[in-house]
User: What shape does this take?
Amino acid sequence: MRPPAWHWVPANAMDNPSQARSEADVRRSALMADAQRGDRAAYEKLLRDCVPFIASIARRRGVPADRSDDAVQETLLTIHRARATYDPRRSFDAWLRVIAERRAVDVLRQAHRHGARELHAPLAYEGHADESVDLAAGIERDEKAGWVQSAVAELSERQREAVRHLMLEERSLDDAAALTGRSKGSLKVNLHRALKALRLKIDRGADNG
Amino acid sequence: MADAHDHLHDRLIGALSANLQPVRPLRSPALRALAWLALVVVIAGALAMFANLAAMWDRVTATPDMWLAVIGSAATAATAAIAAFELSMPDRSRAWALLPLPAFALWLGASGLGCLRAYVLPGTHVATMGETRDCLIFIVGLSVPLSAALIFMLRRAYSLAPALTATMAGLASAAAAATLLNFFHPYDAAATDLAVHLVAVAIVVLALRLIGSRALGNFSA
Assistant: This one.
């Protein structure tokens, strides 16, 4: 039978390096020692190995599911910054467990502070005016759309048909051909002519404006 | 959902391992505390060259409260330094903060005894305002370089209890400075002055708790 991935090391094992440690713990100690010497592959492997363990500690400490990622990330950052404080002769699991528990408590405390500041008021949220909305932009957009519509209206019927189906309603060439009963070639030619006519109109409109 | 989480952690793990620099594992906290105490001893040696050692010996051995206070302050400096270095490790018990308490209690008790003696015994020298100000300046002034060196050394580790660690650093620095002050007490049996020392210690500890915990602090979320 394989030993469990994360063996619970008794707290006093930290003070007694010679005490028996699980095989997995010894392996992680070696990976961390390699990481201290600058071995990136060993470090990456070790950190990946740590994620489920940290998440399980956060869960056991009562960190809500939506803050669990914060606890994992804070712990990973702490491992990184504190990596010189790890003594390879000691248990890695015990070292990590204390750090993960303390970061979980920090995240809980922070979530509590946030909770005290924020309140649940869905109606106030819905009723709050969004000041980032530019009312003038909406009017301008409507004006432009109106101008395009009037420009399209001046096209020939065939061209108008092509623009409406292919551009405004974004249909595929096949669908547009099926709907209008025109050939695909005819639709394409009319679309090109319509775009050319519209471009001319826009250029003239820009010159006038 | 699980994919999103894994992706988030993958990115961080990738960034951390890409930026990995080799580090040398720190020596044990006790050894590092000894290194700082050695610095204090070197300063003590330098000060001893300017001090009247015979006069100091007479002063300190004159009454039990004097030498008990010296032993108390020296032991407070040593134990608070050890506590600070232990607490600077992210995995050590917060109970290390209790280590300097017995020595600190001895120091406080002996100082209190000294104050009492000043009231009971006629003819005891009572420190004047000018003298107490000199003592205050000496303790606070010497604490600045001592605590700066200590904080610099502590920053190589990574404390998860920065305020507690900084408080211990302040206590260690102030206690060391108060111990070294014994070389230069300008008068014999300066009993009431011991109370002033504690005021200076309180100033240093509070300042370190405020400034030092920021220098050692590190929770990013």
